[in-house]
Design brief:
By secondary structure, the chain is an alpha+beta fold. The chain has helices at residues 3-62, 65-79, 151-186, 188-198, 217-274, 280-312, 323-337, 357-374, 425-435; strands at residues 83-88, 93-97, 113-121, 124-133, 142-149, 319-322, 342-347, 352-355, 378-386, 389-396, 439-443, 452-458.
Length: 479
Protein backbone atom coordinates (compact mmCIF):
# COMPACT_ATOMS: atom_id res chain seq x y z
CA UNK A 1 0.00 0.00 0.00
CA UNK A 2 1.37 3.40 -0.96
CA UNK A 3 2.31 5.90 1.70
CA UNK A 4 -0.18 8.47 0.40
CA UNK A 5 -2.99 5.90 0.60
CA UNK A 6 -2.05 5.03 4.18
CA UNK A 7 -2.05 8.73 5.11
CA UNK A 8 -5.44 9.23 3.43
CA UNK A 9 -7.01 6.27 5.27
CA UNK A 10 -5.58 7.37 8.61
CA UNK A 11 -6.78 10.92 8.04
CA UNK A 12 -10.25 9.69 7.03
CA UNK A 13 -10.40 7.76 10.31
CA UNK A 14 -8.95 10.47 12.53
CA UNK A 15 -10.78 13.52 11.20
CA UNK A 16 -14.31 12.40 12.19
CA UNK A 17 -13.03 11.31 15.60
CA UNK A 18 -11.49 14.73 16.13
CA UNK A 19 -14.66 16.43 14.90
CA UNK A 20 -16.81 14.35 17.25
CA UNK A 21 -14.51 14.99 20.22
CA UNK A 22 -14.54 18.68 19.42
CA UNK A 23 -18.31 18.47 19.07
CA UNK A 24 -18.66 16.92 22.51
CA UNK A 25 -16.66 19.75 23.97
CA UNK A 26 -18.69 22.28 21.99
CA UNK A 27 -21.93 20.58 23.04
CA UNK A 28 -20.99 20.92 26.68
CA UNK A 29 -20.10 24.58 26.25
CA UNK A 30 -23.35 25.27 24.36
CA UNK A 31 -25.38 23.48 27.04
CA UNK A 32 -23.72 25.55 29.75
CA UNK A 33 -24.26 28.80 27.83
CA UNK A 34 -27.92 27.96 27.17
CA UNK A 35 -28.51 27.20 30.85
CA UNK A 36 -26.86 30.43 31.85
CA UNK A 37 -29.01 32.28 29.32
CA UNK A 38 -32.17 30.53 30.52
CA UNK A 39 -31.42 31.35 34.15
CA UNK A 40 -30.67 34.93 33.24
CA UNK A 41 -33.98 35.22 31.41
CA UNK A 42 -35.86 33.81 34.40
CA UNK A 43 -34.17 36.25 36.76
CA UNK A 44 -34.95 39.21 34.47
CA UNK A 45 -38.60 38.16 34.13
CA UNK A 46 -38.86 37.68 37.90
CA UNK A 47 -37.61 41.22 38.54
CA UNK A 48 -40.04 42.64 35.94
CA UNK A 49 -43.04 40.61 37.23
CA UNK A 50 -42.50 41.25 40.96
CA UNK A 51 -44.44 44.64 41.09
CA UNK A 52 -47.44 43.09 39.36
CA UNK A 53 -47.29 40.13 41.77
CA UNK A 54 -47.45 42.51 44.73
CA UNK A 55 -50.43 44.32 43.14
CA UNK A 56 -52.15 41.00 42.43
CA UNK A 57 -51.70 39.83 46.04
CA UNK A 58 -53.03 43.14 47.35
CA UNK A 59 -56.07 43.11 44.97
CA UNK A 60 -56.91 39.52 45.97
CA UNK A 61 -56.66 40.45 49.65
CA UNK A 62 -58.93 43.53 49.29
CA UNK A 63 -61.47 41.75 47.09
CA UNK A 64 -61.08 43.78 43.91
CA UNK A 65 -61.62 41.25 41.14
CA UNK A 66 -61.23 43.70 38.23
CA UNK A 67 -57.86 44.91 39.43
CA UNK A 68 -56.90 41.32 40.16
CA UNK A 69 -57.80 40.28 36.60
CA UNK A 70 -55.79 43.14 35.11
CA UNK A 71 -52.78 42.26 37.22
CA UNK A 72 -53.00 38.63 36.13
CA UNK A 73 -52.93 39.70 32.46
CA UNK A 74 -49.94 41.92 33.13
CA UNK A 75 -48.09 39.09 34.90
CA UNK A 76 -48.77 36.73 32.00
CA UNK A 77 -47.64 39.38 29.52
CA UNK A 78 -44.40 39.99 31.41
CA UNK A 79 -43.71 36.24 31.73
CA UNK A 80 -44.19 35.78 27.94
CA UNK A 81 -43.06 32.20 27.07
CA UNK A 82 -42.32 31.01 30.63
CA UNK A 83 -44.77 29.61 33.09
CA UNK A 84 -45.86 31.85 35.98
CA UNK A 85 -47.41 30.81 39.29
CA UNK A 86 -48.44 33.13 42.15
CA UNK A 87 -49.36 31.68 45.53
CA UNK A 88 -50.64 33.49 48.57
CA UNK A 89 -49.21 33.13 52.05
CA UNK A 90 -51.75 30.44 52.87
CA UNK A 91 -50.66 28.32 49.83
CA UNK A 92 -53.65 29.12 47.63
CA UNK A 93 -52.83 29.60 43.94
CA UNK A 94 -53.86 33.00 42.61
CA UNK A 95 -52.34 32.61 39.13
CA UNK A 96 -51.37 29.54 37.10
CA UNK A 97 -50.29 30.28 33.49
CA UNK A 98 -47.85 28.84 30.93
CA UNK A 99 -45.79 25.61 30.89
CA UNK A 100 -45.11 24.33 34.40
CA UNK A 101 -45.64 21.23 36.53
CA UNK A 102 -49.16 20.73 37.99
CA UNK A 103 -50.06 22.04 41.39
CA UNK A 104 -52.01 19.01 42.52
CA UNK A 105 -49.79 15.95 42.63
CA UNK A 106 -46.87 17.92 41.22
CA UNK A 107 -43.37 18.19 42.65
CA UNK A 108 -42.71 19.84 45.94
CA UNK A 109 -41.17 23.21 45.26
CA UNK A 110 -38.16 24.22 47.34
CA UNK A 111 -37.99 27.35 49.40
CA UNK A 112 -37.98 30.57 47.40
CA UNK A 113 -34.50 31.76 46.42
CA UNK A 114 -33.03 34.23 43.96
CA UNK A 115 -31.13 31.57 41.97
CA UNK A 116 -32.92 29.10 39.64
CA UNK A 117 -33.25 25.44 40.57
CA UNK A 118 -34.22 22.34 38.59
CA UNK A 119 -37.49 20.53 39.32
CA UNK A 120 -38.75 17.41 37.59
CA UNK A 121 -42.11 15.80 37.15
CA UNK A 122 -43.08 12.72 35.12
CA UNK A 123 -39.81 12.71 33.18
CA UNK A 124 -39.96 16.41 32.35
CA UNK A 125 -37.65 18.99 33.82
CA UNK A 126 -38.04 22.71 34.44
CA UNK A 127 -35.77 25.46 35.57
CA UNK A 128 -37.69 27.36 38.29
CA UNK A 129 -37.02 30.53 40.25
CA UNK A 130 -39.06 31.52 43.29
CA UNK A 131 -39.26 35.10 44.55
CA UNK A 132 -40.77 35.72 47.98
CA UNK A 133 -43.12 38.70 48.45
CA UNK A 134 -42.75 39.61 52.13
CA UNK A 135 -45.86 40.58 54.06
CA UNK A 136 -46.15 44.16 55.41
CA UNK A 137 -49.00 46.04 57.12
CA UNK A 138 -50.30 47.19 53.76
CA UNK A 139 -49.03 44.28 51.63
CA UNK A 140 -50.01 40.62 52.00
CA UNK A 141 -47.19 38.05 51.48
CA UNK A 142 -46.83 35.31 48.88
CA UNK A 143 -44.46 33.66 46.41
CA UNK A 144 -43.94 34.31 42.68
CA UNK A 145 -42.68 31.29 40.68
CA UNK A 146 -41.45 31.34 37.09
CA UNK A 147 -40.85 28.11 35.11
CA UNK A 148 -38.95 27.42 31.86
CA UNK A 149 -38.94 23.88 30.39
CA UNK A 150 -35.52 22.23 30.09
CA UNK A 151 -36.63 20.61 26.83
CA UNK A 152 -36.02 23.91 25.03
CA UNK A 153 -32.32 23.68 25.86
CA UNK A 154 -32.16 19.99 25.00
CA UNK A 155 -33.73 20.63 21.58
CA UNK A 156 -31.08 23.22 20.77
CA UNK A 157 -28.29 20.95 22.03
CA UNK A 158 -29.65 18.05 19.95
CA UNK A 159 -29.70 20.30 16.90
CA UNK A 160 -26.05 21.25 17.48
CA UNK A 161 -25.06 17.60 17.97
CA UNK A 162 -26.84 16.63 14.76
CA UNK A 163 -24.91 19.28 12.83
CA UNK A 164 -21.65 18.06 14.38
CA UNK A 165 -22.39 14.51 13.29
CA UNK A 166 -23.22 15.73 9.79
CA UNK A 167 -19.92 17.65 9.66
CA UNK A 168 -18.03 14.55 10.82
CA UNK A 169 -19.62 12.40 8.11
CA UNK A 170 -18.78 15.01 5.51
CA UNK A 171 -15.24 15.65 6.82
CA UNK A 172 -14.20 11.98 6.69
CA UNK A 173 -14.13 11.54 2.89
CA UNK A 174 -13.13 15.15 2.25
CA UNK A 175 -10.25 14.95 4.75
CA UNK A 176 -9.11 11.63 3.29
CA UNK A 177 -9.15 13.06 -0.25
CA UNK A 178 -7.26 16.21 0.73
CA UNK A 179 -4.75 14.14 2.73
CA UNK A 180 -4.21 11.87 -0.28
CA UNK A 181 -3.57 14.81 -2.61
CA UNK A 182 -1.22 16.50 -0.14
CA UNK A 183 0.61 13.26 0.63
CA UNK A 184 1.01 12.53 -3.06
CA UNK A 185 2.67 15.89 -3.58
CA UNK A 186 4.74 15.61 -0.39
CA UNK A 187 5.94 12.11 -1.34
CA UNK A 188 7.06 13.18 -4.81
CA UNK A 189 10.69 13.88 -3.70
CA UNK A 190 10.74 10.49 -1.99
CA UNK A 191 9.54 8.73 -5.15
CA UNK A 192 12.17 10.59 -7.16
CA UNK A 193 14.86 9.47 -4.71
CA UNK A 194 13.57 5.89 -4.99
CA UNK A 195 13.84 5.98 -8.78
CA UNK A 196 17.38 7.32 -8.55
CA UNK A 197 18.49 4.69 -6.06
CA UNK A 198 16.86 1.85 -8.00
CA UNK A 199 19.21 2.55 -10.90
CA UNK A 200 22.36 2.24 -8.81
CA UNK A 201 24.70 -0.71 -9.31
CA UNK A 202 26.89 -1.45 -6.26
CA UNK A 203 29.36 -3.28 -8.51
CA UNK A 204 29.75 -0.27 -10.81
CA UNK A 205 31.66 2.51 -9.05
CA UNK A 206 30.84 4.85 -11.95
CA UNK A 207 27.23 5.08 -10.81
CA UNK A 208 26.70 7.52 -7.97
CA UNK A 209 23.59 8.80 -6.22
CA UNK A 210 23.01 12.34 -7.44
CA UNK A 211 20.63 14.29 -5.23
CA UNK A 212 19.63 17.92 -5.33
CA UNK A 213 18.27 19.38 -2.08
CA UNK A 214 14.47 19.23 -1.97
CA UNK A 215 14.17 21.29 1.24
CA UNK A 216 12.27 18.35 2.72
CA UNK A 217 14.37 17.50 5.76
CA UNK A 218 13.50 13.79 5.89
CA UNK A 219 14.16 13.21 2.18
CA UNK A 220 17.42 15.17 2.20
CA UNK A 221 18.57 13.34 5.35
CA UNK A 222 17.71 9.97 3.78
CA UNK A 223 19.59 10.87 0.60
CA UNK A 224 22.60 11.96 2.65
CA UNK A 225 22.44 8.69 4.60
CA UNK A 226 22.25 6.66 1.40
CA UNK A 227 25.21 8.55 -0.05
CA UNK A 228 27.17 7.89 3.14
CA UNK A 229 26.26 4.19 3.08
CA UNK A 230 27.21 3.87 -0.58
CA UNK A 231 30.44 5.77 0.05
CA UNK A 232 31.29 3.44 2.92
CA UNK A 233 30.41 0.47 0.73
CA UNK A 234 32.78 1.70 -1.97
CA UNK A 235 35.45 2.36 0.64
CA UNK A 236 35.06 -1.08 2.17
CA UNK A 237 35.05 -2.68 -1.27
CA UNK A 238 38.27 -0.84 -2.04
CA UNK A 239 39.74 -1.87 1.31
CA UNK A 240 38.72 -5.48 0.62
CA UNK A 241 40.43 -5.30 -2.75
CA UNK A 242 43.51 -3.85 -1.09
CA UNK A 243 43.43 -6.61 1.51
CA UNK A 244 43.33 -9.22 -1.25
CA UNK A 245 46.13 -7.45 -3.08
CA UNK A 246 48.10 -7.25 0.15
CA UNK A 247 47.62 -10.96 0.78
CA UNK A 248 48.72 -11.75 -2.75
CA UNK A 249 51.72 -9.44 -2.40
CA UNK A 250 52.57 -11.00 0.94
CA UNK A 251 52.54 -14.45 -0.62
CA UNK A 252 54.51 -13.31 -3.66
CA UNK A 253 57.09 -11.41 -1.62
CA UNK A 254 57.45 -14.20 0.87
CA UNK A 255 57.91 -16.83 -1.84
CA UNK A 256 60.44 -14.65 -3.65
CA UNK A 257 62.46 -13.53 -0.67
CA UNK A 258 62.35 -16.84 1.14
CA UNK A 259 63.62 -18.82 -1.83
CA UNK A 260 67.29 -17.98 -1.29
CA UNK A 261 67.47 -18.62 2.49
CA UNK A 262 65.41 -21.79 2.13
CA UNK A 263 67.70 -23.10 -0.59
CA UNK A 264 70.69 -22.20 1.55
CA UNK A 265 69.17 -24.00 4.53
CA UNK A 266 68.44 -27.06 2.41
CA UNK A 267 72.01 -27.09 1.13
CA UNK A 268 73.33 -26.96 4.69
CA UNK A 269 70.96 -29.73 5.74
CA UNK A 270 72.10 -31.87 2.81
CA UNK A 271 75.71 -31.28 3.86
CA UNK A 272 74.93 -32.43 7.38
CA UNK A 273 73.03 -35.47 6.10
CA UNK A 274 75.51 -36.51 3.39
CA UNK A 275 78.69 -35.87 5.39
CA UNK A 276 78.33 -37.29 8.88
CA UNK A 277 82.13 -37.31 9.18
CA UNK A 278 82.44 -33.50 9.23
CA UNK A 279 84.84 -32.10 11.73
CA UNK A 280 83.39 -30.32 14.75
CA UNK A 281 84.51 -26.97 13.39
CA UNK A 282 82.92 -27.55 9.98
CA UNK A 283 79.72 -28.81 11.61
CA UNK A 284 79.64 -25.71 13.80
CA UNK A 285 80.03 -23.44 10.77
CA UNK A 286 77.14 -25.20 9.00
CA UNK A 287 74.94 -24.96 12.08
CA UNK A 288 75.79 -21.26 12.55
CA UNK A 289 74.84 -20.70 8.94
CA UNK A 290 71.54 -22.51 9.53
CA UNK A 291 70.79 -20.40 12.61
CA UNK A 292 71.55 -17.23 10.66
CA UNK A 293 69.24 -18.22 7.79
CA UNK A 294 66.52 -19.21 10.26
CA UNK A 295 66.78 -15.81 11.97
CA UNK A 296 66.64 -14.12 8.58
CA UNK A 297 63.53 -16.10 7.63
CA UNK A 298 61.81 -15.24 10.91
CA UNK A 299 62.73 -11.56 10.62
CA UNK A 300 61.51 -11.44 7.03
CA UNK A 301 58.14 -13.01 7.85
CA UNK A 302 57.71 -10.70 10.85
CA UNK A 303 58.55 -7.64 8.75
CA UNK A 304 56.17 -8.65 5.96
CA UNK A 305 53.38 -9.20 8.48
CA UNK A 306 54.01 -5.77 10.04
CA UNK A 307 54.05 -4.16 6.60
CA UNK A 308 50.72 -5.80 5.76
CA UNK A 309 49.23 -4.67 9.08
CA UNK A 310 50.25 -1.10 8.36
CA UNK A 311 48.52 -1.23 4.98
CA UNK A 312 45.28 -2.51 6.55
CA UNK A 313 45.03 -0.73 9.91
CA UNK A 314 41.84 1.30 10.45
CA UNK A 315 41.32 4.67 12.15
CA UNK A 316 39.53 3.17 15.16
CA UNK A 317 42.82 1.54 16.21
CA UNK A 318 44.34 4.97 16.91
CA UNK A 319 44.56 6.42 20.41
CA UNK A 320 46.73 8.71 22.52
CA UNK A 321 50.33 7.50 22.75
CA UNK A 322 52.98 8.69 25.22
CA UNK A 323 56.04 8.69 22.99
CA UNK A 324 58.46 9.06 25.91
CA UNK A 325 57.17 5.91 27.63
CA UNK A 326 57.23 4.04 24.33
CA UNK A 327 60.88 5.00 23.65
CA UNK A 328 61.88 4.12 27.20
CA UNK A 329 60.27 0.67 26.89
CA UNK A 330 61.88 0.02 23.50
CA UNK A 331 65.35 1.00 24.78
CA UNK A 332 64.92 -1.22 27.85
CA UNK A 333 63.94 -4.19 25.66
CA UNK A 334 66.95 -3.60 23.39
CA UNK A 335 69.33 -3.53 26.35
CA UNK A 336 67.92 -6.82 27.66
CA UNK A 337 68.10 -8.50 24.27
CA UNK A 338 71.55 -7.11 23.36
CA UNK A 339 73.59 -6.34 26.46
CA UNK A 340 76.40 -4.98 24.27
CA UNK A 341 74.24 -2.09 23.07
CA UNK A 342 75.39 1.35 24.25
CA UNK A 343 72.37 3.66 24.19
CA UNK A 344 72.06 7.18 25.60
CA UNK A 345 68.66 8.84 25.77
CA UNK A 346 68.07 12.57 26.06
CA UNK A 347 64.43 13.65 26.34
CA UNK A 348 63.72 17.33 26.89
CA UNK A 349 59.94 16.80 26.64
CA UNK A 350 57.43 13.96 26.86
CA UNK A 351 55.25 14.38 23.78
CA UNK A 352 51.85 12.73 23.54
CA UNK A 353 50.26 12.31 20.17
CA UNK A 354 47.36 10.51 18.47
CA UNK A 355 48.60 7.33 16.90
CA UNK A 356 48.60 3.58 16.52
CA UNK A 357 50.82 2.39 19.37
CA UNK A 358 52.00 -0.87 17.72
CA UNK A 359 52.95 1.10 14.61
CA UNK A 360 54.93 3.70 16.56
CA UNK A 361 56.64 0.91 18.47
CA UNK A 362 57.66 -0.57 15.09
CA UNK A 363 59.23 2.80 14.19
CA UNK A 364 61.28 3.02 17.40
CA UNK A 365 62.31 -0.67 17.41
CA UNK A 366 63.49 -0.62 13.81
CA UNK A 367 65.43 2.62 14.25
CA UNK A 368 67.20 1.18 17.31
CA UNK A 369 67.94 -2.15 15.62
CA UNK A 370 69.14 -0.39 12.47
CA UNK A 371 71.50 1.80 14.52
CA UNK A 372 72.66 -1.25 16.48
CA UNK A 373 73.44 -3.30 13.35
CA UNK A 374 74.94 -0.57 11.15
CA UNK A 375 76.28 1.81 13.80
CA UNK A 376 78.56 -0.41 15.77
CA UNK A 377 76.24 -0.76 18.79
CA UNK A 378 76.61 2.84 19.99
CA UNK A 379 73.70 5.21 19.51
CA UNK A 380 72.16 8.38 20.91
CA UNK A 381 68.40 8.93 21.10
CA UNK A 382 66.84 12.39 21.39
CA UNK A 383 63.17 13.04 22.01
CA UNK A 384 61.25 16.28 22.43
CA UNK A 385 58.89 18.89 21.04
CA UNK A 386 59.65 21.54 18.45
CA UNK A 387 56.91 23.98 17.44
CA UNK A 388 54.16 21.59 18.42
CA UNK A 389 55.73 18.64 16.60
CA UNK A 390 57.16 15.53 18.25
CA UNK A 391 60.76 14.99 17.19
CA UNK A 392 62.64 11.68 17.50
CA UNK A 393 66.30 11.49 16.47
CA UNK A 394 68.52 8.40 16.48
CA UNK A 395 72.25 8.88 15.81
CA UNK A 396 74.69 6.05 15.20
CA UNK A 397 78.44 5.90 14.63
CA UNK A 398 78.39 3.73 11.52
CA UNK A 399 79.86 4.42 8.09
CA UNK A 400 76.91 6.64 7.14
CA UNK A 401 74.75 6.74 4.01
CA UNK A 402 75.77 8.77 0.94
CA UNK A 403 73.35 11.67 0.27
CA UNK A 404 72.32 10.28 -3.13
CA UNK A 405 71.18 7.00 -1.51
CA UNK A 406 69.31 8.37 1.50
CA UNK A 407 65.91 8.24 -0.18
CA UNK A 408 66.41 4.77 -1.63
CA UNK A 409 67.05 3.14 1.76
CA UNK A 410 63.29 3.29 2.46
CA UNK A 411 62.47 1.09 -0.54
CA UNK A 412 61.41 -2.49 0.01
CA UNK A 413 64.17 -5.10 0.27
CA UNK A 414 66.85 -2.45 -0.10
CA UNK A 415 69.83 -3.59 1.96
CA UNK A 416 73.58 -3.42 1.81
CA UNK A 417 75.71 -6.30 0.63
CA UNK A 418 76.74 -7.23 4.19
CA UNK A 419 73.39 -6.48 5.84
CA UNK A 420 71.92 -9.39 7.81
CA UNK A 421 68.44 -7.86 7.83
CA UNK A 422 65.42 -8.32 5.58
CA UNK A 423 65.64 -4.92 3.89
CA UNK A 424 62.27 -3.93 5.33
CA UNK A 425 63.23 -2.19 8.56
CA UNK A 426 63.40 1.36 7.22
CA UNK A 427 60.48 0.61 4.87
CA UNK A 428 58.39 -0.12 7.96
CA UNK A 429 59.59 3.14 9.53
CA UNK A 430 58.62 5.14 6.43
CA UNK A 431 55.25 3.39 6.21
CA UNK A 432 54.28 4.11 9.81
CA UNK A 433 55.53 7.69 9.71
CA UNK A 434 53.47 8.32 6.57
CA UNK A 435 50.47 6.63 8.22
CA UNK A 436 50.82 9.09 11.13
CA UNK A 437 51.17 12.02 8.70
CA UNK A 438 54.74 12.69 9.71
CA UNK A 439 58.09 12.84 7.94
CA UNK A 440 61.36 10.91 8.15
CA UNK A 441 64.75 11.72 6.70
CA UNK A 442 68.40 10.74 6.94
CA UNK A 443 70.97 13.43 7.73
CA UNK A 444 74.44 13.77 9.13
CA UNK A 445 74.73 13.85 12.93
CA UNK A 446 76.35 16.86 14.63
CA UNK A 447 79.60 14.89 15.02
CA UNK A 448 79.80 14.48 11.25
CA UNK A 449 80.38 10.75 11.59
CA UNK A 450 77.60 8.18 11.20
CA UNK A 451 73.94 8.64 10.35
CA UNK A 452 71.08 10.53 11.96
CA UNK A 453 67.49 9.42 11.34
CA UNK A 454 65.02 12.20 12.21
CA UNK A 455 61.30 11.50 12.58
CA UNK A 456 58.75 14.29 12.99
CA UNK A 457 55.16 13.51 14.01
CA UNK A 458 52.26 15.93 14.52
CA UNK A 459 50.82 16.06 18.04
CA UNK A 460 47.45 17.47 16.97
CA UNK A 461 44.61 15.15 16.02
CA UNK A 462 44.27 14.71 12.26
CA UNK A 463 41.25 16.31 10.62
CA UNK A 464 41.46 14.13 7.51
CA UNK A 465 40.78 10.37 7.39
CA UNK A 466 43.46 7.79 6.85
CA UNK A 467 44.50 7.36 3.22
CA UNK A 468 42.30 4.78 1.55
CA UNK A 469 45.15 3.54 -0.66
CA UNK A 470 48.21 2.16 1.11
CA UNK A 471 50.47 0.07 -1.08
CA UNK A 472 53.74 -0.32 0.76
CA UNK A 473 53.55 -4.10 0.42
CA UNK A 474 52.09 -4.31 -3.07
CA UNK A 475 54.51 -1.95 -4.85
CA UNK A 476 58.20 -2.12 -5.30
CA UNK A 477 58.77 1.43 -4.06
CA UNK A 478 56.55 3.34 -1.65
CA UNK A 479 58.67 6.28 -0.54
Amino acid sequence: MRLSTRIALVTAAIVPVLVILSGLLLSGLVTRDLKVGQDGKLQERAVAALPFARSELKAADTGRPRVQANDQHRLAAVALDVGVRLTAADGSVLLFDGPQPPVTGGPVLPAARRTPVTVSYDGTGWRAIGTAVPATPGQPGGTLWLFSPSSAIQDEVSAVQGRILLVALFAAPLGGLLAFLIAERAARPLRLLQRRTSGLDPDDPATRLSHRPTHVAEVDDLAHTLQSVLGRYDEQAARTGEALATAQAFAASASHELRTPLMSMRTNLDILADHPDLSPQERREVLDDLHGEHARLLGLLTALRSLAQGDLVEADAFGTVDLAELVESAVADLRRARPSARVTVHAWAAPKLPGWEPGLRIVVDNLLVNAMVHGGGTMAVELGLEHGTAVLRVDDQGPGVPPDQREAVFDRFRRGPDSPGSGLGLTLVAQQVALHRGSVRLTDPPSGHGTRVEVRLPTAAATTPLPTTRNWLTHDSAH
